[in-house]
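Query structure, 137 tokens:
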């Protein structure tokens, strides 16, 4: 983050950091539930053709970068997810910026719903080309 000044004004995106926990529904079946562990403001940068992203692309499948202030007495890990608006991101890496404990830089990959994949023609269980008998166009 050489030469980049982080300020409260740049952190204009609201995000939730969530973790999934197993719960039981009234019938006793196990279900996964998102539990919000932190809600905060962050700087969000989408993947684009800059030199920084070109260097990151060699090592990461991340689609977005988030920067936010460290949360006291809480450790963000790759087991957590980020919710930003209607989008969900799996965290691929977490880095303490400059090692000073002030900001975290998180690289994350957007999770696409099966509906979005179907629109792009990506095979899913419901429209699997290999097993569904259908043929790709």
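Result returned for the query:
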């Amino acid at each position: 983050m050489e030469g980049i000044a982080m300020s409260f004004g740049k952190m204009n995106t609201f995000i939730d950091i969530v973790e999934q926990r197993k719960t039981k529904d009234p019938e006793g079946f196990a279900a996964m539930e998102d539990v919000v562990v932190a809600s905060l403001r962050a700087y969000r940068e989408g993947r684009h053709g800059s030199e920084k992203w070109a260097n990151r692309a060699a090592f990461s499948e991340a689609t977005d970068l988030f920067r936010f202030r460290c949360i006291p007495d809480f450790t963000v890990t790759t087991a957590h997810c980020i919710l930003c608006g209607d989008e969900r991101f799996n965290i691929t890496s977490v880095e303490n910026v400059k090692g000073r404990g002030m900001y975290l830089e998180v690289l994350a990959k957007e999770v696409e719903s099966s509906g979005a994949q179907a629109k792009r023609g990506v095979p899913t269980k419901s429209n699997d080309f290999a097993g569904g008998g259908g043929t790709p166009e």
